[in-house]
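To: structure subgroup
Subject: Chain for Friday's discussion

All,

I'm putting the inputs and outputs inline so they're searchable in the archive.
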Amino acid sequence: MRELAGLAMDGGAALPLYGVRPEGVAALLDGLPPAQAALARLQGFAGQAGAVVLLAGDDATLQGAVLGLGSGPVVHGFGAAAGALPGATVWRIAEGDFSGEDAALGFLLGAYRFEHLKTRTPKPQAQLAAAQVPARARVIASAICLARDLINTPANLLGPAELAQAAMDLAVRFGAHTTHVYGAAVAERYPALAAVGAGSERGAEAVLLTWQGSRADADAPLLSLCGKGVCFDTGGYDLKPGAAMLRMKKDMGGAAILLGLAQAVMALDLPLRLQLRVGCVENSISGHAMRPSDVLQTVAGLSVEVGNTDAEGRLVLCDLLAEAASETPDWLIDAATLTGAARVALGPDLPALFCNDERLAQSILAAGQLVNDPLWRLPLFDGYAAWLDSPVADLNTVSTKPMAGAIVAALFLQRFIPSGIAWAHVDVYAWNDSSRPGRPEGGEAQSLRALLAAVETLGA
C-alpha cells in the first residue's frame, strides 16, 4: 500500500492555511496584517473556489496563504489546495467556519496522483502536517486512495490474481481471516463467476474476508459486502466497440470501493462483524468463453440464460450475493460498475441506489447528503420483473426491451436475495472524466464515504 500523498510525516514547522467562504472574506482580511490584507484585496480575492493568495512577511518570506472555498462542499474547496500552493511546502489548516476533518480530507484527496508508473520524478507538492490531520480523515483518505489506485492500475498489472491478492493483503494488515477460492474450486463454489472467467487464461478467483471488531461480540450486527471485480471487460462474444473498451480496467470499481470501505471499517474498529466477498475475473474471448444463449447454474439453484455476454457483472455478483444472504446479514450491500443505463439516467457523478429496505435506503441516502457523497434512489419496479423471463431457463440475464437497463439489472440481482434480507445495490461509474478539486481524473471511490457514514449508524 502506498503512503498517502500530501501528508508530511516530519514534525517541522507548518504554515497556516486560511480557508474562507465569500461571506467570511471581510472578517478574515480585517484580522490579517494590513499589508497582507491589502495584497489580497489588490488581487481581487473574494473567496472564490480555488483562489489562493500567498501571504508574505516583512522580509518577503512566505508566511501563510488564504484559500477561497466558494459555496460548495468544504471537502471539494480544500481539494484545490495541494495543487494551488507552492511545492515542497508544509501547511496546517487554521481554524475556520468549517469541519477540520472535511478540510484535511479534501486536502489529502486533492493531493492524490497516480504517477508511480512514470519514470520521471514527480514534481514536489504542498503537504499537510500529519500532526494536524484528524485520525478519521486520514483513515478515509487512505481508503479512498486504495480504491483509486486499484481502479487506475492497468489490467496487465491487475488481473484476477492480483485483485484477490490485494484483498488478502488487506486482511493481513488488520488480522482478518480469508478464504481464497481459485482453480477448479471456483466452478464448484461460484459456477456463474467461473463461467464469466472461462474465456480468459487468467482464471477467475474469489476472496472471502471475515473480521470482527474488538468491541463486537457474537451478536454484533453483521455487515456483508459483495464487490464486482471484473479486471477487464471486452464484452465477451458480444464484443464492445473499441472506444467502449478504453476504460474497462475500471470494471472492477465496485470491488475496489468495497475494499476501501472494508479497510475503513477495520481501521476505525467499528463494533461490527464484517464479511467481504470479492469476485475477481476477466471477461475475455476464446474457445472456452461463455456464449449468448448458454444456460448456467448458480449457487441459488436458479438456471440462467446468457442473453448477452457483456452483461457479465450480474453473473459475477449473483453467486456472491446468494452465499452472503445465507449468512443472514443485518445489511447486505453490493457495489458494481454494472450498467451504462445508470449513467444515462443519472450522469457520471451520481451513483444509482436500489434497495429493498426503507431503513437501509434512508440510512445511505441521508449519509450521502451529510458527507457530500450523494446517491440517487431508483425503483426496484416489480412491473418489469417479467422482462427477465426465459423460455429455456429460470431467468435471462437481460431483457429484450431497450429500456430501464439499470432497473432490470437490479431486478436480476434481487432474484438472488431471499425475503427478509435488507439489501442495497449501488451502480457506480467509479471514474472522474476530468480533474476537479479533490477529484483528479481517473478512478474514483464513489459512494465510499456515504456507505461508511451509513455503516457507522449500524454499529451505533
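Points worth raising on Friday:
The chain has a mean pLDDT of 96.
The longest strand covers residues 222-233.

D.
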